[in-house]
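Priority: medium. Attachment 1 of 2:
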């Protein structure tokens, strides 16, 4: 088998671990071939980096789906510790504490509504302000994800 075929075979394998003895049994033709083994190592490492980047992008997009996306579930899916996950968020300019960002957005909306009330004599209700940001009163009681 050539290195590309080995990568494909291991990708299709149900086991996530491959011991040295299993490797020797599965791929005896590579054991003495230094160049093929190095090529296999390079291909596997490249694939690992690509999948890691794909995983991180998916995690960031999952976090971006809404203010109540379950971050604990996202971290578990990406096999990432909280500190690593929050560094990833900060690296990509995403808020670590979403509740503060949401509170700031709602406060800004209230100030705008109050300013607009002076212009036309009406006042926006809390429900109207929340609706502008895609929230309802029920969202105020949801726990942070």
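Attachment 2 of 2:
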């Amino acid at each position: 088998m050539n290195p590309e075929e080995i990568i494909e075979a291991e990708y299709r394998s149900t086991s996530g671990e491959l011991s040295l003895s299993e490797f020797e049994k599965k791929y005896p033709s590579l054991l003495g071939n230094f160049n093929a083994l190095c090529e296999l190592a390079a291909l596997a490492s490249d694939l690992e980096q690509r999948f890691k980047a794909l995983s991180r992008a998916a995690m960031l997009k999952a976090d971006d789906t809404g203010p109540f996306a379950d971050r604990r579930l996202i971290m578990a899916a990406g096999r990432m510790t909280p500190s690593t996950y929050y560094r990833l968020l900060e690296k990509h300019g995403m808020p670590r504490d979403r509740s503060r960002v949401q509170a700031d957005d709602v406060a800004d909306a209230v100030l705008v509504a109050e300013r607009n009330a002076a212009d036309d004599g009406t006042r926006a209700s809390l429900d109207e302000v929340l609706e502008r940001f895609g929230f309802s009163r029920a969202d105020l009681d949801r726990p942070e994800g």
